[in-house]
Amino acid sequence: MLMDLTYNIHGSNNPIKIDDALGRILPVPSEYNLWKINAIVLDQFKVGSAHEKVSCGEYELFNGVDSRQPLSDSGLGTLVSGMSITMAFVIGLYEQQPCHMQRLVRHL
């Protein structure tokens, strides 16, 4: 149903489909940029077991067709209508670098 609403609001542009790290498919308007996509990911993981990893930025977004390079490293300014984006968690980052969000929580 959400996909149909997105399609009707934005005319002929097909929504971008985000396949998050938990297997959920999130359709978003193709007019969105990578900043808005990241905001949606943060919102989707604001509660639950993966909240800490996502709030610390321990995830990457990849083109669903070609996952060799993260979207954040590609200099991608605009996203293509109808494209798929895959989200993956970064493993092992907790031990290497402390998360700034953990320090903020301790000070509150």
From TrEMBL:
What this protein is called in its record is Ubiquitin-like domain-containing protein
Domain named Ubiquitin-like: residues: 13-90
Recorded superkingdom:
Eukaryota
The record's section on InterPro entries has:
ULD_fung (IPR054464)
Upper lineage ranks?
A: Eukaryota, Fungi, Dikarya, Ascomycota, Pezizomycotina
Q: Name one Pfam family in it.
A: ULD_2
